[in-house]
Amino acid sequence: MCGIIGAVADSAITPVIAGLGKLEYRGYDSSGISILQDERIETRKVRGKLENLKQNLLQQPIDGNFGIGHTRWATHGRATKVNAHPHQCGPVSVVHNGIIENYLLLKKQLLQWGHTFHSSTDSEVIPHLINHYLSLNMSQEEAIDKAIRQLEGSYALGILISGETNNLFSIKQGSPLVISQGNEGFYMASDALALGEDARKIYYPNDNELIKLNKKEIKVCCKSKTINFINNSCSNSTITKGSYNSFMEKEIHQQVDLIKSSIVDIQAVVYEKINFKNLSKISIVACGTSYYAASIAKFWLEKYALINVEIDIASEYRYRSPIINKNELIIFVSQSGETADTFAALKYAKSKNAKTLALVNVSNSSIAREADSVLEIHAGPEIGVASTKAFTCQLAVFYKMSLAAAEHRGAIKPFEIEQLKTNFMKTPQLISGILERSAELKNLSKKLCEYSNALFLGRGTLTPIAQEGALKLKEISYIHAEAYAAGELKHGPIALIDENMPVVVVAPKDSLSEKLLSNIQEVQARKAPLFIIGDSYIREYVNLKDDEFFELPAIPESILPILSVIPMQLLALHCAQLLGKNVDQPRNLAKSVTVE
Q1: Of 279, 324, 334, nearest to 301 (Cα)?
Q2: Which DSSP symbol is given to 474?
Q3: Within a 13 Å sphere around the CA of 536, how many CA atoms are in the beta-carbon half?
Q4: Quick one: 3-231 is in which CATH superfamily?
Q5: Who's near 344: CB < 8 A, 6+ residues apart?
Q6: Across the strands, what pairs with 67?
Q7: CB 455 within 8 A of CB 495
Q8: CATH superfamily of 241-425
């Protein structure tokens, strides 16, 4: 999940530091940089945010033509300066994103060979292995190849080697990596967004393709292969918070315009990608917030298109030996398009000759390139670690997919499809109305954030919204929260309910409201602090204060999930702000989960 970057340029430190700033969403436990200066490698590492590294470099400047950098999300070893990357052994300095699964065996062997280790990371074995083989008079390429063949796990590497010929090498196995050619230099990074304005052309290397970058060229080692660069479509413009206090707050408010733009050609883009008539089943594979979007998609597709839908947590999918049908479509959902578990599940499905579709926010991501076809959610760059606008954009695409499938399969009448389209067209205005009342949710948050635990409840399509609400609260405020389908309350969770267990209920009027009301009564009977996101119909049945009930406008049932998640996002945002948490960079989390 770490971010890596490297550059060969007149002043390599400039693009490396700038790139690390754009990669900090991948991890911010520590950071570091190695610069090849006067034929020797100078390394600086700090604990904490990138700003600490910038201050270090201001006090003791370094520069050179070759550089690599790293921003860390800790896996092996605590977040300390000594565990920060780059890791160096002799003339070799390495930055690593991934996990080396057999590092203990390799470390034991290297210790026997006389090597001394300083960190507790898995990554440090890599420069030691390479340096060991260099000491046996192997060439730089041979030493790297020999070392790489011993690694088990996933990796994207930037390898800086000083010597008679100075080179920057890069190689990957199962982790994202992009190579770039510009007018002013050559670059490598774990994400195209990290590349600077000079990075006009990019190349996505295959696994175990060793790339060498120096002042003269970029080449694939050990192969007579020409690199076919493509134009870099990623925006390298500076992304700012504008007038907002955080990127998350900005991205919550961006949802109005994003949903508005998605209304155009509600179904046309889906028709181009999928023939629903011959499908007997759709499977959707995702993690985290994307999994909750998939859960809502299951409701919509089964209700409107009358097609069997199965959903899977990506990290579990390939371990249960799923049966893949001939006429089955498998959809892989990932905001970044780099989620390691989802990518591995996709490769498993491809090995079984499955029809695959990627639903992603990054069109040139690993998952997008691997799948048979791609649907973009067009959410734009999402900087806040806790996903908001990507979730609603995923829902928008799934809603359009459900209507296209319903029409393709003749599952519901044409006038019903037109009504569902009309409902969707109301969402931007309704979202805007909720956002304008953010202060009301802040008043509710003031009460909720006094507690250290919370229980979220919903029914039907709003169960995943309750789950997403609990996840958001956990992610950025660190309040422990769990979510259940309200009908499950009596099957165990009710034992937790007392005057110290607040319960948040997602309860706008829908076909299950009457059943949900009985669950609300069960909560009230046990004197639990109760907070409801509902409408005027629900409010008639409960006696709550204004700072305990957020009243939604009348909303068509088909679009309730899209609208109901907005208060969940604001609730979590306000709780985190009131508790003084870092909203955009919550502890222990990274935006893109690129390791298992």
Answers
A1: 279
A2: H
A3: 3
A4: Aminohydrolase, N-terminal nucleophile (Ntn) domain (3.60.20.10)
A5: 174, 314, 318, 596
A6: 7, 35
A7: no
A8: Glucose-6-phosphate isomerase like protein; domain 1 (3.40.50.10490)
Structure tokens at 52: 């600490």
Instruction: Give the total residue count for the chain.
Output: 596
Strand 230-231 relative to strand 185-189, pairing: unpaired
Domain layout of the chain by residue ranges: 3-231, 241-425, 435-586
Tell me the DSSP string of 158-173.
Answer: EEEE-SSS-EEEEEEE
pLDDT score of 362: 87
C-beta atoms surrounding 11 within 10 Å: 15
Structure tokens belonging to residue 371? 């799948």
Do the domains 435-586 and 241-425 match in fold? yes
For 458-506, what is each residue's pLDDT tens digit? 999 999 999 999 999 999 999 999 999 999 998 999 999 999 999 999 9
Superfamily the domain 435-586 falls into: Glucose-6-phosphate isomerase like protein; domain 1 (3.40.50.10490)
6 Cβ contact list (under 8 Å, min separation 6): 16, 66, 67, 68, 69, 95, 158, 160, 168, 170, 187, 188, 189, 213
Whether residue 141 has pLDDT greater than 90: yes
3-state secondary structure string across 280-327: CEEEEEECHHHHHHHHHHHHHHHHHCCCEEEEEEHHHHHHHCCCCCCC
The arithmetic mean of pLDDT across residues 39-53, rounded, is: 91
Give the span between the Cα atoms of 237 and 260, in whole angstroms: 23
How far apart CA 174 and CA 349 sit, in angstroms, is: 16
pTM of the model: 0.87
Is 595's pLDDT higher than 70?
no
Residues 575, 335, 122: CA angle, nearest 5 degrees = 90
CA 92 from centre of chain: 31
Distances (CA, A) of 564 to 430, 454, 505: 10, 18, 11
Q: Does 287 qualify as catalytic in the annotation?
A: no
List the one residue out of 485, 492, 454, 423 whose CA is nearest residue 568: 454
Could you give the CA distance from residue 121 to residue 78 in angstroms, rounded to a whole number? 8
Catalytic site residue from 22, 45, 355, 591: 591
Alpha carbon of residue 275 to chain centroid: 29
221 has catalytic annotation: no
Q: Which of 2, 287, 449, 575 is catalytic?
A: 2
